[in-house]
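#lab-general

N.A. 3:47 PM
ok so I finally got the sequence cleaned up, no stray characters, all 201 residues accounted for. can someone with queue access submit it? mine expired

B.Y. 3:52 PM
send it over

N.A. 3:53 PM
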Amino acid sequence: MLKTVNRVLLALAGLLLVALGAAVLVGALDLRRRWGLALPAGWPFAGAHDVLLSAAARRRRRGGDWWWPVVITVLSLLVLLALCWLLAQVRRRRLDTVLVHGGDSGDADMVLLRAGALEEAMSAEAAEAAGVEDAVVTLTGRRTAPEARVTLTLAAHSAPAAALHRLCTEALDHARSSVGLTKLPARVRLRIVRHRAERVE
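B.Y. 4:20 PM
back already:
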């Protein structure tokens, strides 16, 4: 869905820019006079010295009570739409499904696995390691080549190297083999659980 929206928005933006560029080019090169083009009434760039809004038109619009509220509203809407689109691109990086290879007979044995189920299984297995208080796994990338982002919350006196080794040899390796991948790249972030200072008496 988001891919379709992106294509439609890019197509509309491209058409708008092409139309605006053609209008400016017609006026700048004075093609109306040179080629005898019949331009519609009210064409903004009819000649080489024409502008979109004349000084008189700008003064007249700025003097109206409606001008600034309309300008601010339109610009605010454009900013909000741009932010919504940007957030959608960021959220899009998280996978919805993972392509699982079920056998050696090609695409016939391929099924789609919900990425959330695989994330939960990996998080649960990673959290069982000694010294790990909590584990959060997020799958990104493409469904045929997923990548894992792992956040491990370690206990205060745990060994980070041991926890990382167990994550790689157990949770990540089991997930990779279970979905039939040759590799499963992972970016691991280690955190230490917050605890109160001990009171000495």
